[in-house]
Amino acid sequence: MEICVHTEPTQRGASYRTLLQAATAAAEFGFHGFFRSDHYLQFGTPVRPAGASDAWLSLAALARDTTGIRLGTLVPPVTLRSPVHLAVEVAQVDQMSAGRAELGVGAGWYAAEYEATAVPFPSGRTARLAEALDIVASMYFSPCSTASATGTVWVLFEIRKISGRKNSFQV
User: Which pLDDT score, from 0 to 100, does residue 96 have?
Assistant: First the structure.
């Protein structure tokens, strides 16, 4: 069994320094991974904007400032983040961290967050999730030098395959 730490910096207004201290402590105590939420708003009523904290941007910094511990999110909604952009971001963090990035994805659920970021809350979120997984997988594991995918929401036209990503895919 591998035990990881999960934190909600958006809910508490945690700074990058606080995240770094928590990730460093988690590594020192022998935890397998350090994961953070991927939200821009705090939960509750009234809905309040969170402090400026982007999940993959802060994980990129942690990739450079930590060693040994795996890094990831629980979980980026692919209906709020483009699967192409997400795949590229995670691959970059994976390179920056010497292979310690973990990608998990979700369908999105927090309607207020969509409204606050000017993105319509979509119907058919699980179908979009399946389509996004196909796109991400083709970008990482296509046997060709380019990847393409056609779905009902996203169409991926011959984007260059992401190289350097480990040949593992967890769902």
Answer: 93
